[in-house]
Amino acid sequence: MSFQNEDLIAVCQRTMPFGKYQGRPLIDLPEPYLLWFADRGFPAGELGRLMALAMIIRVESLTDLVAPFRG
To answer: Comparing C-alpha atoms, which of 23, 49, 24 is closest to residue 38?
Structure first.
């Protein structure tokens, strides 16, 4: 899976479209929730790709990378 620089902005601006965390920015999804998806499979398409990026950022403690893009 490859990521682009623009994905750092998108992971902060895109919100979860369904479920318990609907409306929450992807970068703010709880780590256990993201890990649950990683275990069972992320949604198809851009949403899943960005959720995977959010998980990597959260698990690796790289949230400083997205700090400039948070609104």
So the answer is: 49
Chain center to CA of 9: 11
Average pLDDT, the chain: 93
Query: What pTM was computed for the model?
Result: 0.91
Residue type, 60: E
Amino acid at 34: L
Q: Three-state secondary structure along the chain?
A: CCCCCHHHHHHHHCECCCCCCCCCEHHHCCHHHHHHHHHHCCCCHHHHHHHHHHHHHHHCCCHHHCHHHCC
Tell whether the torsion through CA atoms of 18, 59, 56 and 42 is positive or negative. negative
